[in-house]
Amino acid sequence: MIDQDLQAYAGLLVSSIIAEKYRFKPLGCSVSDRGLACDFDTGGIYPSVNELQNLLGVIDGGGSVTCEIREDEYLQSLGRPKVCIHKNIEIPLEGELNPRPVKKIYIHVINVSAHNPGPNISLLRVNMAAFDSRERLEEYLKWLEEAEKRDHRILGRKLDLFSFHEEAGAGLVLYHPKGQVIREELIKLAREINDSLGYKEVYTPHVYRSLLWRISGHLSHYKDKMILANIEGDEYGVKPMNCPGHILIYKSLPRSYRDLPLKLSEFGTVYRWEKRGELYGLLRVRGFTQDDGHAFLREDQVKDEVKAILEKLLWMLSLFGFKGDDIKVSLSTRPEEYIGTIDAWDKATEALKLALEEIGLKYDVKEGEGAFYGPKIDVDFRDSLGRWWQCGTIQVDFNLPERFNMVYTDEKGRERRPVMVHRALLGSVERFMAIIIENFSGRLPTWLSPVQIVIIPVSRNLEDKAVELAKMFKEKDIRTEVFSGSSSLGKRVREAYSQAIPYIVVIGEKEAEAGMITVRARGNREARMVKPEQFLELLLEEIKDRKLNQSAIESLLDLQ
RNA sequence: GCCGCCGUAGCUCAGCCGGUAGAGCGCCGCCCUGGUAAGGCGGAGGCCCCGGGUUCAAACCCCGGCGGCGGCUCCA
Asked: Are strands A200-201 and A262-271 parallel, antiparallel or unpaired?
């Protein structure tokens, strides 16, 4: 959708115009799949989006911030420029260009922001997207609109899932009953996987003495993100991570090589004091729940553990439709600053590589991008709007076993240090939830839907019948609601659709007489005169298998 | 944290140059007793984010907070 060369041309034009008008020094432009960003050294002056729109062209009648820039002669003679000199202003340009004639460029100014890479440098960044036709521009504006409709913050309110409150504090989520259903379903899934991998679930405190955080190193490396309190002369800190707690459990008993691997998991809610401007809906909060787990292993056990986790992680993502080209796996290796021995790093990295290769996964190696305490594997996936996300992670850790002086006794009675693997499948339940809400536009698969079916009696005297039907579904743990009341049938159907309910069961005189129901699903699909028991059975199967599609309605339609 | 923008009914928003507030949807009630994506009529609902200042008078102007949005940096 975003044309790289075109963006680069637009960068030249915009840079020259802004530089000339404000006497800003252009610092270069960069082009990404999200559009174009041009930086300027401004000396502390910041024009508004409005000012720039006015400067760059005519504002569209429809309220969109678009403008047209006409081709300039100097552009034609550029060749493959790295730097453009226009009216004595030097404009460096990143990336390669394939020049070609451009008649008009349509630019959408997204935003103007400041960027402070250092204490004495303040630069202005103008974010834009450029198009070669009005149609493309309008397409893009529509995509923006579509993305906004899927915004989990908006859907979260509309579907009554969660809320934030000024008096509660920024970045702190309150889950409503329906949001909690989704949360619980995600946790249930992760719990099943953890069980199958041999993880034993634990529960640990939310607050520890700072002594613990000193041992773990958080107090020196992570202090500015921690919530600390002095109570009766002793300092306590709210946990930003679950690992120290799990390590204490490991250390509560002497461990032998026979005890390993020891695997502990926890749905632990952690708190990290993120900076104000970093908060963003459920995607970036100050309190969140991790589907955390730690495996304490002998060195020779790392590969098999990582392999098992990876396989389950990929399976889990496929449940949501993330698979194939929409998955990207990467291995991050030893950075310049690291702890532990090179030998240990090499062994661990080799184990991760082998795990990846034995599964037959393609992966990128990110040289030097590992954490200081160990190498890691990240699994990224792409959602239905084409955005990449990283949730699942598997990290080897040499640091904490050392800091906590963790040991086990090997077969010869010697003390050995275990290797620790941190892993999460969903990552943060909150973030994962936000991603799938946007991915599915709120229309979650049936197993995840807070309300799975709504029963609508056509007339009031069928309300008892509807309640009776609801009872049958509820007894099988189908999340069911009855939409009765004085509003019209059409309105209640509409309401059910706008609440993203997967199945609408309609019961009228005709159905009641025959002991049948009408089943309506997403995409305006409807099966009339269906036996309730038959639908129930198909629905149970759809939910049990965590199907991505609405297999129940599809089977019913196939049968008709 | 930094830069810009914003905060009016449950939600989305209007309210001009200062004269103490409006719409649509939703909610509640009544009517309609219904056949598939908004049936009709009526009603209630507002510390105009908070605190201070200017003014005869502030939703509107100024200052400070809090919260939200778009970016930057960082991250699950």
From this structure: parallel
Q: What is the DSSP string of A252-269?
A: TS--BGGGPSEEEEEEEE
A463-502 tens-digit pLDDT: 999 999 999 999 999 999 999 877 889 999 999 999 999 9
pLDDT tens digits, one per residue of A122-177: 677 777 777 777 777 777 777 777 777 788 999 999 999 999 887 788 889 999 99
Active site residue A84: no
Element (H, E) at A15: helix A4-22
Name the nucleotide with the smallest C1'–CA separation from A170: B67
CA of A182, C1' of B42: distance in angstroms: 39
Which residue from A417, A453, A479 is spatially nearest to A550, judged by alpha carbons? A453
Residue range A4-147, CATH number: 3.30.980
Among chain A residues 117 through 146, which have CB within 7 angstroms of nucleic chain B? 117, 122, 125, 127
CATH entry, A155-204+239-438, from 3.30.930.10, 3.50.50.60, 3.40.50.170, 2.30.40.10: 3.30.930.10
Q: Which nucleotides of B are covered by protein (CB under 7 A)?
A: 1-5, 7, 11-12, 26, 30-40, 66-76
Residue A139 — φ and ψ, nearest 5°? -55, -45
What ipTM describes this predicted complex? Answer: 0.90
Cβ(A559)–Cβ(A543) under 8 Å?
no
Q: Which of A528, A555, A527, A560 is nearest to A540 (CA)?
A: A555
Does 3.40.50.800 match the CATH number of domain A446-559?
Answer: yes
Q: Residue ranges per domain, chain A? A: 4-147, 155-204+239-438, 446-559
In the structure encoding, which two tokens stand for residue A509, read together?
A: 């005189």
Sign of CA dihedral A302, A308, A310, A312: negative
Q: Could you check: is the Cβ of residue A1 within 7 Å of any atom of nucleic acid strand B? A: no
